[in-house]
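Troubleshooting: if your tokenizer reports a length mismatch, compare your output against this known-good record of 188 residues.
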Amino acid sequence: MKQFLRYQISGMIFIGWLLIFYYSGKNSDFNLFIKSAIDGDFFKNKVFYGFIVAFPIGVILHQISVNIKNHIGAKICKELNDTPEKDLISKLKDDNIEYTKYIFERISNLNSFYYVRFDNGFLAPFLALIIIVSCGYSVNPISVSIAIGLGVIILYYISTICRELEKYSNMLLSQKKIRYYDIKNKSK
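Known-good structure output:
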């Protein structure tokens, strides 16, 4: 359910940015922007369709985000790599299972926090802007500035997420019952 909501929200934010960029180019005045957006076709009869298409758009955004995270983000912060380590639980003794599950849950939550920030703070507005501009519509620079400002604010926390992922990864690796050799050779 958590992923369904994340995809739906990401898709709706993408659609929202599409509308903002589209209507911002038609009006330089904020009041005219709001009026034309409300009077536009989307809010009259197409809102329902927006909710329907938001989910698949959110899934596509997430898949793009996963590729960016694993191929670019993991080179900047190695803890962002999504290489599954859940098979390590089987290498632990019974007394460490709860501790390990807790660490994996924290890592999973931090990855979700990363995706929500990256998908909604960068990817959705960036792709919406690219689509609107490539379709030949003009975009008000103020709306682009707002998108950049919000993106910086939303993405700022990613460095903290990376540090916390590193801390939990180190906690996992520091357990005496898991040797570094076992982790490196888990695929064998």
